[in-house]
Amino acid sequence: MSRSTIYWIFTVCIFIIYFFPYFVLGEDAYFFIHDNLDSDVVWYKIVAENEHVFCISNENTIKQIMNGIPRNSLPSGYSLLTLLFIVCSPFCAFLINYMLTHIISFIGMFLLLKKHVFSNIFYHKHTRFFVYILSFSFALLPFYGTHPGIAISGIPLIVWAFVYLYNDRASRYHYLIIIFYAFYSSLIYVGVFILFFLGIIWLRKIYKTRRFSKQLFLGILFLFIGQLVSEIHLVAQFFDASFVSHRVEFFPKNLSFIESLQSAGKLLLFGYYHAPSYHGIILLFVVFTVLFFRKKCVHFSMCRLLQRICIVIVSIVLLYGIWDYGHFQVIKDNVALLKIIQWQRFYWLLPFLWIMAFSISIYVFLSKNKKIVPLYVVVILQFFVVLASNTKVLASYYEMVYPYVKNALTSSPHPPKLSYSRFYDTKLFAEIRDSIAEPPDSYRIVSIGLVPEIAVYNGFYTLDSYQRNYSLAYKDEFKKIISQELDKDSVINDYFNSWGSRCYIFSHELGIQYRFSKTDTTVISDLSLDYTQLKNMGAQYIFSAVPVYNEQQNLELFGMFQHNDSYWKIYVYEII
């Protein structure tokens, strides 16, 4: 058996082990909830099931959310991710996207390292092992959320294609990969930042060669147009003068200089939770490489590339730090381009940049140093750090093993956790829907202590929602309902007024928590809502994850719903 075959068997085995619990557990497996199950999955499900999925006009609304949220506020119907939700069930689409995210990230990183980083030593005795493990160190990162698609995980693949365009050696397949990435990623999340760097590289090449780089220009154009088309609903929303987004009331943090430095330092050392890189070992190794080879590097081009990547990383970190610095707000307020795009989000590129810096450092040592064992140690250690960071995979494996070992455990019974199925709990909410016994579109509900998207997923029509771009007028209307509660707590007041994307029924007794299980003993005893405004907006029921003991005679308990295996205990109150 050839060495190449052995490595590919190894690759398949790693992915089988990684995805195995999701095939065994299905919807009982665990995934990220924040900015994932509590939002993106539901948005794509609603869009895919709606008759206006491909409509672009804001006159078309999705009536199930916020009394009719503009269609363009929800994800585009022209992305490959939406197509997945159209042709598959929500969980099936979610799982396929999850698998593709990791598989494409491995393929992209493997091709990039093999063809452009380790190309001249790939077939040496040790190199291939490092390429595979480094590729897995990127591919098995817990990429966060559904919405970006392969926006982060697909960066190596898109860079691999653009290197060919840069060298004027591209084929039609490279352009097809660029178009594929454009329709399976996100312009606002990552695309704009990739285009920014590609534009600089293109201009620099023109300056150096004194000629127009046609292939690189076409690649950038295809990426830009493709992402514009795939995000056409967002583009249409942006140019709709009649729509005023709640985002105009986003207020900066106004950090002090010391706080800005601390913010930058945290990003440098620990990364960003939406784009995790787990690069502690990488940081130390890269810094050591730069210092060790700063004067005696025989691979000048690779060392120079490493230094440039490090400069880009530091620049992104510093930009993130100063973005909310108080005195920098004056500049942002007077430069329109700084207000339109959140430029601090270059941090989406950091996982890719860290692994590239790590890979180039390994190359520099590998091609110069005969001491291979330390390189094996550091690369394998980083691989296991990434594996250990996948807490949802580990939790899913625990869920698989627990039934077989529970009799041997002396601890308390297996506590309910929020798997995909327990989070949405379709059985429990179907029981609530049947008990109300009215068409769901004939009444509106709001939720307390649990995210409203759970009710949306189960077919209810809600006034509250988590949305990244909705009408400011609706925010003002909704605020009337919770204004008394906001006045009682500065934290939730700032959370809603300075941000407001979570347009929820807040209680000063719950704060900004919205995940209370049936075992929680929290109660609400002082809920001050404008029930007249609630009824004027069409609300008839409140779904609460905790009991509401209120002196006002505005609520009447309709019923309490739970199952033995439920995470939630839902108290349904009728507004009277």
Could you walk me through the main structural features you see in this protein, from its secondary elements to its overall organization?
This protein is mainly α. 56% of the residues lie in helices and 6% in strands. It has helices spanning 3-25, 33-37, 40-49, 80-87, 90-117, 127-139, 155-166, 172-183, 187-209, 214-230, 232-238, 257-270, 280-292, 300-323, 328-334, 336-340, 350-368, 373-389, 391-405, 420-424, 426-436, 453-457, 472-488, 490-497, 531-536; strands at 61-62, 69-70, 444-448, 465-466, 502-503, 539-544, 555-561, 570-575. The strands form 3 sheets. A 4-stranded mixed sheet has the order 3-6-8-7. A two-stranded antiparallel ribbon has the order 1-2. Helix 4 (80-87) packs antiparallel against helix 5, helix 6 runs parallel beside helix 18 and helix 8 packs parallel to helix 10. The longest helix has 28 residues, at 90-117.
Q: What is this structure, in a nutshell?
A:
This protein has 576 residues and is mostly helical. It has helices at 3-25, 33-37, 40-49, 80-87, 90-117, 127-139, 155-166, 172-183, 187-209, 214-230, 232-238, 257-270, 280-292, 300-323, 328-334, 336-340, 350-368, 373-389, 391-405, 420-424, 426-436, 453-457, 472-488, 490-497, 531-536; strands spanning 61-62, 69-70, 444-448, 465-466, 502-503, 539-544, 555-561, 570-575.
